[in-house]
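hey can u check if this looks right to u? its 217 residues, i copy pasted from the old doc so theres a chance i mangled smth
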Amino acid sequence: MKKYCAIFFLLIFINPAWSEQPITVARIKYQGGGDWYGNRTTFTNLFQYMNQYTNVKTAEREIPVEIMDREFFKYPVSYIAGHGNIRFTEQEILRLRKYLSSGGFLWADDDYGMDFSFRREMERVFPDAEWVELPFSHPIYHMYYSFPNGLPKIHKHDGGPPKGLALFYEGEMVVFYSWNTDISDGCEDPDIHGDPPDLREMALHMGTNILLWALTH
C-alpha cells in the first residue's frame, strides 16, 4: 500500500503542540458483562507502530477510563470493544452524549459479540441519528495508508465484507464503528491470534488511519 501524500496531511503534523505530550486513547470501561478489557496488546503495538512510522508521539498504551470519571473529558479520542453485552447507565448516556457533542470522538471496534448491545446503547445516546456506511473515498481510508476498498477484512466473523459505519452530530462524524473485521485483534501480538504478517500489517495500517483521522478532525 502506498502512503497518502497530500500536502494538507504533511502540514498537520508540523503542529509543535503535539510533541509536548504523548497522544493516548481512553479505553471505555463499561458494565453489562462484556470484556471491555480485551485486546490487551492492541494499543501497545499500534502506538509503537505509529511512533516508528508517523510524526505523532504516542504513549506506551491506552488509559482505561469509566465514562463518569473526571478524567474522561481529558481524552479527545476514546475506544470501545468487547465480545459481550455493553450497558450504560442513564448518567453515562448523558455524559457520553455531551463528550461526543463537545468534540470527543469514539472508535468502536466490533470484537464479535458486541454488535447488538453497542447499537442499542448508541441509539440511547443519539436517538435521532442513523448509522451511515462511509464510502471508500472517505479520507479515513486514505489518511496515511490507502485502502481503496474500505476496511480490510482481518477475521472471518460471520463472513461477508466489513463495513465502516459512522454516526454524525451536526454534520461531524463523532463515532466510527469498524464492523465485521476486528482491527483490534489484528494489531495484537502475532502469537495471540496467529494472523499472517500481511493481515497484521493491514490492521496496523488501518488503526493508524483511524487514530490519525480522529486526532485531526
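The radius of gyration is 16 Å.
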